[in-house]
């Protein structure tokens, strides 16, 4: 025990002596959390719209007004021909082209249906989908407006003959994407930092030759490993604390669940990540190798974590791969606890899987750590 | 017997590093392992300090088996690898305290052993190890290897890259340690250091060529060595190689060392031969063989 404490003390000394490392450890995650949380948005804003109004009637102007009044669209640009609109789309000057045909008003008044043409730049399919939804909503509102107006005139009485859906968004009632993203990004930061640090740490001793000196001492495997990894476990929890404070103070992320549960889960999760780092360390010879391999895994973990793209929309095989992704479980967990206020009962599956992973990975890591060749 | 190696072989992926090595080192002996780079010296050290496992053979260190009593050996030996391998970002005193602690001892407990080495670096004890000079690094590494009062000390090329004054000091320290009853196995590529050992083993390409006292090795050498010099040193070696009874020739400091096939040959014949080749101010005289001469001949 005394030896473990001494190694821990030595590790902390080395960490705090390395000033550039210290900055990396604490300032970088804060900056990343602040920058990424503001930048990684799914909101589609500032949609540039071009309108070809052949109808040039009061009805078409009402529709255009409604589009212009919508906060997601910038002020519409008017062109006189469809060809000109398509050219703007081709040259990337606009995102959406709306063409209103000549008989627009006439058909609205006399017949039941009319049509407008909407052209959307769909290079980014997801964005195009969102833009389409926004436009459809505007058109729908417009429809309703016309319907009511016409009914007024014709029948002199209101006959609402349609069902209106009023969505109620739970757990994130204002649909604030930051509430959704900040806890996820915090998870990424904790994972990245602790994985990089732990995978590079033991390999660093290998590189410097100090491991050789350690290996001829009677120090036991477990003493050395615990002594080396414990400081990073502590650092992981410190970063979690800083991250949660920023989430609360800067982003006002709701924290409905039990914070103790978050810390409990994180402390087990960190064991898993540190064990994984140790495993990488054992199988590499230089810090560069360790860094590259850690990056490789981190990129896969991040992209398949369900943070940026929903797991439900991945192909079946990819969904199966995500079952082995620890970040997935942590992201799921932290969102459930913070945003939904889930208790131990609800997160038990995540906790169980992470504990299982931690045991397996650490077992492999300790087993593959050899003092002799 | 402090170190006993029996028929040990080790190869790395079919490339033999050590072949059938047998040697014994007595208690309290300063034993030198002399050989060029790549001879297998470090491999032998790593085997004896339990960092490697042999393919064949057995060995004991301080009467502990290197295969079965790994833990006992690690407590009983001090190892100083060829490459400086202490924590560069820790200070002298922190490094020393660290190694004392993982050996379950304290600096105070064995201070008498390291005292005369430690006092030399003590003025810098709060300096980081990475900022020390080569000689001071070696002294610190030696202190760390001694802090748990080992019975056997392994020093892998401790004087490589160290200035001549520090080298001399270092060997004096080794002699004092020997007097304290510590068995020392030291390797070096410098032949002049060989004479400072009690006994030496000449090792090359993974094989031991000779084991004896330095004097014994020199005495057993039968051939006569001439040192030769002239006004045209660069041509001298080539010309000597064309002398009919030439056996070996190599540059040695300011002279060329020449050995003839015939042990009783007349040096005047050679002098006339060189004169005929156009050499002037020729020096040609017998010299006593050194370890280096013998090594070159092996």
Overall description:
The complex is a heterodimer of chains A (373) and B (298). Chain A has 373 residues and is mainly α. Chain A folds into two domains: 10-39 and 185-368; 49-155, abc type-2 transporter like fold (3-Layer(aba) Sandwich), CATH 3.40.1710. Helices cover 67% and strands 5% of the residues of chain A. Chain A has 14 helices and four strands. Chain A has a four-stranded mixed β-sheet, with helices on both faces. In chain A, helix 2 crosses helix 9, helix 3 packs across helix 6 and helix 10 (259-282) runs parallel beside helix 14. Chain A is elongated, with a radius of gyration of 29 Å. The mean pLDDT of chain A is 85. Chain B has two domains: 3-214, P-loop containing nucleotide triphosphate hydrolases (Rossmann fold), CATH 3.40.50; 225-297, Alpha-Beta Plaits. Chain B is built from ten helices and 14 strands. Chain B has helices at residues 41-48, 70-76, 92-102, 111-121, 134-146, 164-179, 214-219, 233-241, 267-276, 291-297; strands at residues 3-12, 15-25, 30-34, 56-61, 64-65, 77-80, 152-156, 183-188, 199-204, 207-212, 225-229, 246-252, 255-260, 283-287. In chain B, the strands form three sheets. Chain B has a six-stranded mixed β-sheet, sandwiched between helices. A four-stranded antiparallel β-sheet of chain B has the order 2-1-4-5, covered by helices on one side. Chain B starts with a strand and ends with a helix. The mean pLDDT of chain B is 88. Chain A binds chain B through residues 2-3, 6-7, 10, 13-14, 17-18, 208-210, 212-219, 371-373, and chain B through 49-53, 70-71, 74-75, 77, 79, 81, 83-90, 94, 98-99, 101-104, 144.
């Amino acid at each position: 025990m005394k030896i473990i404490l001494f190694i821990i003390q030595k590790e902390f000394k080395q960490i705090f002596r390395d000033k550039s490392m210290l900055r990396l450890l604490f300032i970088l995650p804060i900056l990343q959390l602040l920058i990424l949380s503001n930048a990684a948005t799914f909101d589609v804003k500032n949609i540039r719209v071009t309108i070809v109004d052949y109808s040039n009637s009061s009805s078409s102007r009402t529709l255009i007004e409604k589009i212009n009044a919508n906060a997601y669209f910038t002020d519409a640009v008017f062109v006189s021909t469809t060809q000109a609109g398509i050219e703007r789309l081709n040259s990337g000057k606009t995102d959406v082209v709306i063409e209103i045909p000549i008989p627009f008003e006439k058909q609205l008044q006399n017949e039941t249906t009319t049509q407008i043409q909407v052209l959307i730049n769909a290079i980014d399919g997801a964005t195009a989908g969102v833009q389409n939804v926004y436009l459809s909503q505007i058109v729908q509102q417009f429809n309703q407006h016309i319907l009511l107006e016409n009914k007024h005139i014709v029948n002199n009485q209101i006959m609402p003959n349609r069902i209106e859906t009023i969505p109620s968004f739970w757990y994130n009632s204002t649909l604030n994407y930051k509430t959704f993203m900040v806890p996820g990004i915090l998870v990424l930061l904790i994972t990245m930092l602790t994985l990089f640090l732990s995978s590079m740490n033991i390999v660093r001793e290998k590189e410097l030759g100090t491991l050789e000196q350690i290996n001829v001492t009677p120090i036991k495997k477990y003493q050395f490993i615990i002594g080396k990894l414990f400081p990073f476990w502590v650092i992981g929890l410190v970063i979690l604390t800083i991250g949660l404070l920023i989430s609360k103070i800067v982003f006002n992320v709701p924290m409905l669940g039990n914070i103790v549960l978050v810390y409990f889960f994180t402390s087990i999760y960190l064991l898993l990540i540190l064990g994984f780092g140790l495993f990488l360390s054992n199988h590499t010879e230089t810090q560069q190798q360790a860094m590259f391999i850690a990056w490789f895994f981190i990129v896969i973990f991040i992209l398949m974590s369900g943070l940026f793209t929903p797991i439900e929309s991945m192909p079946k095989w990819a969904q199966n791969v995500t079952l082995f992704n620890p970040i997935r479980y942590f992201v799921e967990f932290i969102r459930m606890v913070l945003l939904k206020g889930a208790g131990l009962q609800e997160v038990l599956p995540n906790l169980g899987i992470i504990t299982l992973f931690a045991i397996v990975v650490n077992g492999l890591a300790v087993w593959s750590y050899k003092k002799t060749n | 017997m402090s170190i006993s190696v029996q028929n040990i072989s080790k190869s790395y992926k079919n490339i033999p590093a050590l072949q059938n090595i047998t040697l014994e080192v007595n208690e309290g002996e300063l034993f030198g392992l002399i050989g060029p780079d790549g001879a297998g010296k470090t491999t032998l050290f790593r085997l004896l300090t339990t960092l490697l496992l042999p393919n064949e053979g057995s060995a004991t260190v301080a009467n502990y088996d290197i295969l079965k009593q790994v833990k006992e050996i690690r407590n009983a030996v001090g190892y100083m690898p060829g490459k400086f391998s202490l924590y560069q970002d820790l200070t002298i005193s922190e490094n020393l305290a660290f190694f004392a602690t993982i050996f379950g001892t304290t600096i105070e407990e064995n201070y008498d052993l390291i005292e005369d080495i430690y006092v030399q670096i003590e003025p810098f004890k709060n300096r980081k190890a990475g900022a020390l000079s080569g000689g001071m690094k070696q002294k610190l590494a030696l202190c760390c290897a001694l802090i748990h009062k080992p019975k056997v000390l392994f020093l892998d090329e401790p004087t490589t890259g160290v200035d001549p004054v520090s080298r001399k000091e270092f060997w004096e320290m080794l002699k004092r340690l020997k007097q304290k009853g510590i068995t020392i196995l030291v390797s070096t590529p410098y032949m002049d250091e060989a004479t400072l050992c009690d006994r030496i083993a000449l090792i090359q390409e993974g094989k031991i060529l000779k084991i004896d006292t330095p004097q014994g090795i020199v005495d057993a050498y039968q051939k006569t060595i001439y040192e030769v010099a002239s006004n045209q040193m660069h041509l001298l070696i080539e010309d000597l190689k064309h002398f009919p009874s030439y056996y070996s020739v190599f540059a040695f400091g300011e002279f060329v060392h020449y050995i003839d096939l015939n042990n009783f040959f007349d040096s005047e014949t050679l002098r006339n031969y060189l004169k005929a080749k156009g050499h002037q101010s020729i020096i040609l005289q017998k010299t006593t063989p050194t370890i280096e001469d013998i090594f070159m001949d092996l």
